[in-house]
Write a structure and sequence with these properties.
With about 325 residues, this protein is of the alpha/beta class. It contains 14 helices and twelve strands. It folds into two domains: about 230 residues, Luciferase-like domain (TIM Barrel), CATH 3.20.20; about 70 residues, no CATH class. Strands 1, 2, 3, 4, 5, 8, 9, 10, 11 and 12 form a ten-stranded parallel beta sheet that branches. Strands 6-7 form a two-stranded antiparallel ribbon. Helix 5 packs parallel to helix 6, helix 6 packs across helix 7 and helix 8 packs across helix 10.
Length: about 325
């Protein structure tokens, strides 16, 4: 595997995260992607910390949403990150999700149009253009990134969309530099995603080969296969409760889904997760994650690559150092 990346959420302290990213860089990892989803840890502060403490690894948002930051602030934020780590910053952006968006007062309407407008204005601003744009979601008049100290040339900040639905996947192929493919899916999930990306790309005279396709993959490595499965279940138990449609599509029965949902609050406590884990089938874990011994997880990640993933973004469930050693490319 020539390309591999690290994925971090809030499972580890920020201080430990910095150490993991530095270690990933030493092991030849291409990038680190920082999550931003629940109301816990934003992506921008960790990204700045990672960028400031490394020299060559790329740093991406995996992913921020396109609803809560004004487009001018969004562009200036990534300009600033690029000042900190030139040509190493990736903007990963997604359409967010309910009920969280609704609960903080955001009405997610016309997500395709909203994303199209965001990407267009963001790209023009980072190209250092003076932008006037009057759309349904973004209305700006004569704005530009006002660089007084620093580089005034267009910035190399590729825009990746974290797409899940069919229409958003097709739009990603049309307008984005890359797609951040989702995790907690079987490798075969990618086949349809590739078709949709290609369909969108052809609207712009491209093909899917022109679209980078890194993919989030839950990765739990341990010499003891049973321990690896247990570590993975910690995350996947929450996933069954919060994303029941994915769990059902992967073969989890309605009875199990309802049982787990009844046991987990929002946010779920450690005690609730520990109690509900026993109801998650091992087969479900093995189907939608790379879990097991080092040889087993390498083989499973290769399946995602064989189905179109261009760069695995590995989310460590067990020992992060063991996982990085397992996939070291340097």
């Amino acid at each position: 595997m020539k390309r591999v990346a690290l994925y971090l959420q809030d499972r580890h302290s920020l201080q430990d995260g910095i150490k993991y990213v530095q270690y990933a860089e030493s092991k030849g990892f291409e990038a680190v992607w920082q999550a931003e989803s629940r109301l816990v840890r934003d992506a921008i502060v960790p990204m700045a910390a990672f960028a400031a403490s490394t020299k060559k690894i790329k740093v991406g948002s995996g992913v921020i949403n396109n609803w809560t930051r004004n487009i001018g602030l969004l562009a200036s934020t990534f300009l600033t990150l690029d000042d900190l780590a030139p040509d190493r910053i990736i903007c990963g952006i997604g359409a967010w999700w309910d009920p969280l968006a609704k609960n903080v007062g955001i009405e997610r309407r016309k997500p395709l149009l909203a994303m199209r407008e965001t990407v267009e204005v963001m790209r023009r601003l980072l190209n250092m253009e003076n932008v006037t744009f009057h759309g349904e979601f973004h209305n700006v008049t004569g704005i530009e990134l006002d660089v007084v100290h620093g580089r005034k040339e267009p910035r190399n900040v590729p825009i990746f969309i974290g797409a899940t639905g069919d229409q958003m996947m097709e739009l990603t192929g049309e307008i984005a530099d890359g797609a951040v493919l989702n995790y907690c899916v079987a490798p075969e999930y990618n086949d349809k995603a590739i078709e949709l990306l290609d369909k969108g790309a052809r609207k712009r005279g491209r093909t899917v080969a022109d679209i980078d396709r890194p993919q989030l993959i839950v990765c739990s490595v341990h010499e003891d296969r049973k321990k690896a499965i247990e570590d993975a279940k910690w995350l996947l138990t929450q996933y069954v409760a919060q994303q029941p449609h994915i769990a059902k599509a992967s073969g989890v029965s309605d009875d199990i889904i309802k049982k787990v949902q009844s046991m987990l609050g929002w946010p779920a406590t450690k005690e609730q997760i520990a109690s509900a884990m026993q109801y998650i089938p091992d087969d479900f874990v093995l189907k939608i994650s790379a879990t097991g011994t080092p040889d087993e997880v390498r083989a499973k990640v290769q399946q995602y690559v064989d189905h179109g993933c261009t760069c695995p973004i590995l989310y460590p469930m067990g020992d992060p150092y063991m996982m990085m050693d397992t996939f070291a490319v340097a």
